[in-house]
Amino acid sequence: MKKPAAKTILLIANGDLRPAANEATWPFQKAMEKQLTAAVAKLGYRLVRAHRYSAKKKHGFIGSQKEGMEIFSKIDPRTPLIVAEAVWQYSHHILHGLISHQAPILTIANWSGSAPGLVGMLNLNGSLT
C-alpha cells in the first residue's frame, strides 16, 4: 500500500448491483467527476480515482462488495477520500472500507431526477452514522 503524493485525494465511485444500471448511468457519473476534478484542482489538490474505468463493463463504478474490498485493500487508510455519487449506489459495497478509513472522507452527490445520487448518498451517510 503506497501512500499517494502530497495534495492527492482519492475518488471512490460506488454503483449499483445491476451491471445494466451502472452502464446506463455512467455518463452522469463521468460528467460529475469532470466537474469535481476541476473544482478540486482550483483548491490546489489532485483528484485521482482509486479504481479504474472498465472498458469491458462500460463503467467505472464499484459494483459489488467483493470489488469494494479489493479496492480498499490497496488504499492507504491515511489518504483523504471523496466518495462521489451521481447515481444510485449500494452502501454495502464500500461501507466496510469507509468505516475503517483513518483520513478525512468527503461525500458528494448530485440532485437529478435522471440519476439519483443524493438518494444513494443519504443511505451511505446514514449507514456511516
Strand content: 5-15%
Describe the global form: globular
The major β-sheet equals: 4 strands, parallel
The H/E string reads: EHEHEHEH
Rg value = 14 Å
Mean pLDDT: 92
Distance between the termini: 27 Å
Instruction: Enumerate the spans where pLDDT stays under 50 for 5 or more consecutive residues.
Output: none
Number of strands: 4
- Helix content range of the residues, please? 25-40%
Number of domains: 1
Structural class: alpha/beta
Strand order of the largest sheet: 2-1-3-4
Query: What's the helix count?
Result: 4
Summarize the structure.
The chain has 129 residues and is α/β, with parallel strands linked by helices. The protein is built from four helices and four strands, in the order E-H-E-H-E-H-E-H.
Helix-strand layout with pairing:
Elements: E1 8-12, H1 19-42, E2 46-49, H2 65-72, E3 81-85, H3 95-99, E4 105-109, H4 117-128
Parallel strand pairs: 1-2, 1-3, 3-4
What does this structure look like?
With 129 residues, the chain is α/β, with parallel strands linked by helices. It has one domain (24-128). Helix content is 38%, strand content 15%. The chain is built from 4 helices and 4 strands; from the N terminus they run E-H-E-H-E-H-E-H. It has helices spanning 19-42, 65-72, 95-99, 117-128; strands spanning 8-12, 46-49, 81-85, 105-109. Strands 2-1-3-4 form a 4-stranded parallel sheet, with helices on both faces. Helix 3 (95-99) links the parallel strand 3 (81-85) and strand 4 (105-109). It is globular and about 35 Å long.
